[in-house]
Amino acid sequence: MLSPSKTADVRYSFTLFERTPNGNQVRVQTDNTHQPFDINEGSKLELGSTAKLRVMATYLEVIAELHARHAGMSAAQLRAQDVAEQDLLSRWAIDYLLRNPDADLSGMLDAALERRYSASPAERFFTGGGLHTFGNFRREDNGRRPTLRESLQESINLPFIRLMRDLVRYSTYQAPGNSAALLKDDKDPRRQEYLSRFADREGTTFLLRFWRKYQGQSAQQRLDTFIGGLRLTDTRLAAVHRYLMPDVDKATFAGFLKAHLPGEPPSAKRIDDLYTRYGPGAFSLPDQGYIARVHPLELWLLAYLIDHPQAAFDDAVTASRDQRQEVYGWLFKSRHKSARDSRIRIMLEVEAFLDIHQRWQNLGYPFEYLVPSLATAIGSSGDRPAALAELIGIIQNDGLRLPTVRIDSLHFATDTPYETRLGHVLEPGRRVMAPEVAAALRGALSQVVDGGTARRLQGTFTLADGSPLTLGGKTGTGDNRLTSVGRGGQVISSRVQNRTATFVFFLGPDHFGTLTAFVPGRAAENFRFTSALPVQVLKGMQPILAPCLQTAARTLCAPPPQEATAQPAR
């Protein structure tokens, strides 16, 4: 998987936890970075298909919600439920309960894992504000229609993209007030609010892009950069100059045109006409941008920085509130309902991801937001190895979220008047997942080892009597790049940021953790390893880990007996 010359360039991070009555005990936490930076707990990395575990957990939780809501209803009550055409998960749940009126939650979850999704990459998905396509790792999967269980086992991308779309639609249609109804009625007063929020969000995104473009430049450098991106005509230059510097005299304006226009300079009459026509207040900001063929907010930002050279980005956002609404004013006036609908869909997707984010945070997701795009299903929102390990711990503990314990006790100043013993205060676990959901996830993760992307671990770990440990986990590979794409969809440039490969796992009933391989920076361009690498490394660690995985008193991970009971710190 790695040539000997490259082995030393890969950074590894490994953690092992043990589930105990006192919490999740940290048994191993190590890396080979030789730096204070902690990949396990201090990073935000795109860990690829490990995100599918979070998507699957959310999906099974939704199925559990639907079972709780509809199980026990009569057939007539089930048929009377008003289900939106696009809410496919609610529709499936009701149809399943009609066919299986006595189904318990475990049976319904098992059936949910057998639902099939197309793996075809031919579809274009409207998500994240635009049209996107996605691919599978293996081309031979493109014509398949696997079950979700098989999709997790073999880490097939497109079924999870489509599953995430169904989760987004479920969140949209099940939200209080059912905001999706906005798409049916163009006169609904709430549409104005959604369009206004779209304008604010979209405008802020563009403003940040332009801010980064000019960051660190002087006023003259900013102007040179801006003009360097224009197709120069006297009309465009006049519109730009009169907006950016409205108080300059005609002679300065004429000098600007002559300095930047190629060929013969404009006549005095033409200069006089341009100076008057594009003077302050003659055109709105959107019109000025149209005349200059630039985004109006880029023009506004340049003018703002001339007047406020020390401003921070947050200052620019605050100052541009009205301009952001003005630039998107056409949305409110457009005769085309479809234009407004597409923007409202963008905001509905953003809202749905807020709901999904809350679900993920409840299971230990460490960051404050998710990228509102279906690509989150395959890792675009980033994750942290320690947080993935916590999710596995929840699954191992039947849905209880236990505290992480690093230190059992501390003993100071032995045999002195100041002798002090400090002990860990036991905290009860908090239920964050139904036990049936946790059991279904354990079964699905076991199949990743039994015949999926982590199958090389089969038979590796056993107990002292030779009986096999039940293993499970999820693999993920991140080839993380900054890619520039042209208007027609062609890739203009692609610059690697880093490469990651992660395996989040459980080993037997009590132990779980993560192993991450990581190459930062441009050096990652020279690597092609996948998540098979950490799986193989974990397999090679078997002789070291085996003594710690034995049950009860046979494990080497148990702390030594203490002479006295530790007291909680005050």
TrEMBL record:
GO terms for molecular function: peptidoglycan glycosyltransferase activity. Gene3D superfamilies: DD-peptidase/beta-lactamase superfamily (3.40.710.10). GO terms for cellular component: outer membrane-bounded periplasmic space. Keywords: Glycosyltransferase, Transferase. One of its GO terms (biological process) is peptidoglycan biosynthetic process. InterPro entries: Beta-lactam/transpept-like (IPR012338), Glycosyltr_51/Transpeptidase (IPR050396). It comes from the Bacteria. PANTHER family: BINDING PROTEIN TRANSPEPTIDASE, PUTATIVE-RELATED, GLYCOSYL TRANSFERASE FAMILY 51 DOMAIN-CONTAINING PROTEIN. This is Membrane carboxypeptidase (Penicillin-binding protein).
